[in-house]
Amino acid sequence: MASRVWRGMTSAANLPALLLGGWACRGFDDYAAQERLERGLVILLPGIEGRSVLETNVARGLIDGGVQAAIEVQDWTSGWWVLMPWHLCAYDRNRRMAARIASRIEEYRSSFPGRPVHLIGHSGGAGMALFVLEALPDDVRVSSVILLAAAVSSRYSLSAALEHTNEGIWNFHSVLDGPLLGLASLVAGTMDRRRAVAAGALGFDTEFMSQAQQLSAGRLHQVPFTGRMCLSGNLGGHFGCMNRLFAEEWLAPIVTRGALPSA
Asked: What 3-state class would DSSP assign to 253?
């Protein structure tokens, strides 16, 4: 129990290391070792701040939770956190970067056929995860996609993205993330260039889906924030879902067995 609490507390305490960018993102050579690649691949897509300690937290949590697949970060940003507004707004560039990441998935599929591939995107990276799915060829699917504090509009059409998943899309959202994914999204816009409340705050608005989209939405798993998540280090804010303990206890079960943790 003490070591569990320590993992959660130290993960929360290292948030200031965000300012160090990729310098604080360590250990991924080991996480992408050959023996792990032979068991599957988890691709982490960072938010508009770029590669940071947050991805290290999640990777370590996934491994704590029994994920044996390789874990790699695909940093779609410029690598300069001072350019965060541009990373959010550069729609055409982001689509091109998504196509490159889709090519990486095809490359992996070619080298390791039949192995599972999972995408985990945070904030702007959640939007990129959807762009990546839409850039995949018609015959290529990933196992699952996890969206954390997704900075895409709540009425974003998921039908094309869902068609490229086997187990569906898991959208973790929190009303407590309103300051960034509510007010800020109304001012600065979302990854899909809409000034609207983001799906990471209130979830995707399925009421406005067409009949065809509703059929696809059977693979959309909406996961609202609950008080139980606080016990795993996630207090409902924009970065709580990137806590190592939360990754271990909530995200790893989705990757390993396609289900949320049992009560």
From this structure: helix
pLDDT one-digit tens code per residue, 189-218: 899 999 998 999 999 987 766 545 555 666
Whether 117 and 54 have beta carbons less than 8 Å apart is answered as no
- The answer to whether 81 and 21 are in contact (CB under 8 A) is yes
For the stretch 141-156, pLDDT in tens is 999 999 999 999 999 9
Mean per-residue pLDDT of the chain: 89
DSSP 69: S
| The pair of three-digit structure tokens given for residue 140, joined into one six-digit string | 């290529």
The C-alpha torsion from 132 through 136 and 141 to 142, rounded to 10°, is -30
Go through the domains of the chain in sequence order and give each one's CATH number.
Answer: 2-257 (3.40.50.1820)
Instruction: Say what angle helices 53-64 and 2-13 make with each other, to 10 degrees.
Output: 160
Q: Which long-range contacts (CB under 8 A, 24 or more apart) does 234-240 make?
A: 235/176, 236/174, 236/175, 236/176, 236/177, 237/174, 237/176, 237/177, 238/123, 238/149, 238/177, 238/180, 238/181, 239/15, 239/54, 239/149, 240/174
- 114 burial (CB, 10 Å; 0-12 / 13-18 / 19+) is exposed
Tell me which residue of 201, 106, 104, 92 sits closest to 155, measured CA to CA: 201
